[in-house]
Fold this protein.
Amino acid sequence: METPDRTGRARRRIAGDALSAPRALKYRSLSNPLLRQPAFSADRIEAIHEAALRTLEELGVRVLDGEARAVFRAGDAEVDEETQMVRLPRALTKALVAKAPSRFMLRGAHPARDVAIGGESCAFVHVGGAPNVADLDRGRRPATFADTSNFIKLVQASDVIPLVQPTPEAQDVPVELRHLAVTEALLTLSDKPLYVYARGRAQTRDGFAMVRMARGLGEAEFAAGVHAYTVINTNSPRQLDVPMARGIIDFARAGQASIITPFTLAGAMAPVTMAGALTLAHAEALFGVALAQLARPGAPVVYGSFTSNVDMKSGSPAFGTPEFVKAAFGAGQLARHVGLSWRGSAGTASNAPDQQGVWETLFSLWGSVLGGANMVIHAAGWLEGGLTASYEKFVMDIEMLETFAEIFQPLGASDDDIGYEALAEVLPGGHFFSAAHTMARYRDAFHAPKIADWRNFGQWSDDGAKTAGERANAAWKEHLRTFTPPEMEAARREALADFVARRAGEGGAPVEN
């Protein structure tokens, strides 16, 4: 249904087009033209970098996985088996980081879904890993596999999110089987580049096999391109556990991408100053990059950061704070300083898709965007510090992301755009509604939001006075009702289902600790 707004222009109301728009195709490969905002002067960035190199050289990182320690030892690192500490001479760290590519291409099911990572690129990614889910109808609850599938469908509908990852975490599927069910859903409900679990060697091996099966790739073809990514979190301060270390090694050896992301909360697991927290995060990120390059020189990696502060009264994480934003600026500087692509984040500590959730997410996004992030993870649907994925907030966040996508588009400034003829046509005190210049362009002159309601108070009230959250609730339901999965060859779909059934029958794969 279409209703006229106060300018007399027809405007579509909510429902199924809330996640997509006629302009949407240009959102698939976003380039961020905005000037990068620094947090520090060049000499202080170099000082932070040198302090991180000193940390790796003199203090080191505890590595809990024996194979990873062996890889470091073979690469001339100093390894103490008794304490499990690994120390990297600064010259070695610099040489290894220099081997990592500054950019690469993540491959989807077909070329139209490929996503560039690095340079000026900016790829928004939705919330990941939340164990709970929430909506206005049923409230907050443990997530189910049906919820995971629903979010994959919502992501598939939005071109402003070009990558897909598992969220929320399906709590009704045993953890040893979850990677099988969820990866099958990722591959059959979406054709975008996808996340593969790094929770143990067997789970990673299963994930890679499923990607090859669904995408029709031989082992050599799979290894020659980047078809999957994962997120590696260090155990700050200065520790790398078994599944994360093995994940770095396995993804590197397979030629797939690791987003190496220390989660450093200033005042808790990192120094209370942002400069100190960033120094620790920088050291840990470089350490993970170094391990990937020792496993396979040139392995695709992304320098990740997720630095914020805590509420010093309660110890709870805080997001979208001034400190979060400035830390994002600094992390972007550090990533550029070492020539790596950068993963930023968005988030909120709010427990509901309310005003706090909006402003904290928006400030977080500005931190990542102005910091120059090539990937912004948790950019849609995140609530409760990442513990909950919200249906309504996902849709509202998509509106914000599409606004950023439009901000990225260049402004036209041709003679026709400048419009001198329109200036000449309209008399002093007149209006431009009916000018020829306007009439030729009005249908798509401006970005049209799907959730924001621009009608006057009377029209809004007559239509039920629905809040943005209520409109978002209607939008995600309509999209799920009309969802059509992407095409996949029947033989590939059957082979995938057979693989999942066989591996489930064998007991799946436990998470390694």
Residues 274-295 form the longest helix (22 residues). The chain has a mean pLDDT of 94. The radius of gyration is 24 Å.
